[in-house]
Amino acid sequence: MGKRVALVLAGCGVFDGSEIHEASAALVHLSRGGAEVKIFAPNIEQRDVVNHLKGSPSEEKRNVLVESARLARGNIQDLAELKADEFDAVIFPGGFGVAKNLCSWAVDGKNCTVNEHVNSTLQAFHSAKKPIGLCCISPVLAAKVFPGCEVTVGQDKNVDGRFPDAETASAIAELGCKHICKNVNESHVDKANKIVTTCAFMCKAPLHEIFDGIGTMVQEVLKLA
After folding, report:
1. What are the chain's domains?
2. Catalytic center residues
3. Would you state the pLDDT for residue 1?
4. SS (H, E, C) 100-114
């Protein structure tokens, strides 16, 4: 019987929601791994809406759950309804929506607050010793909620211009967590906390390398589940 995995989204689109390629990659690798997946998102208003063609803010108002339903092909539930005892693992793709809608990292950095349902979901899986997978900027959720944990967002220096957000690693360290440097096609497993992370689009890399890195994260999550 396949593992039961919850996937938590933050909207639809890299600049104000979930990164679509990361969400899709996670779903493909979960399917290949024989997992049974259910998708969730918080029923809240987005912090902002970005015109992805122009890269500029829009005056629109959008709902995170409604927008996430685009990625879920309509098959999605309110995050408030997620029960950790019904699943073997949880995975959070990245995208600016994580830092804007699931927490306030985009505005407050390491002093951010985490959405109450995101926080309770992370705490529930952690308390049950069930694995948590995170990619791109999503590892900051674990860094904020679980002081002392180990995560990766890639490298802690902007190596060859490929890691423009390398300062995120320093902010993670300031939260009392350990940042582990990894390449884009790798993931890191914090065995003590059952947290698996990979950098994805935190690295400027070809799409197939990002896809492969997310694959290693999903595989490690399923092994731990």
Report:
1. 4-224 (3.40.50.880)
2. 136
3. 75
4. HHHECHHHHHHHCCE
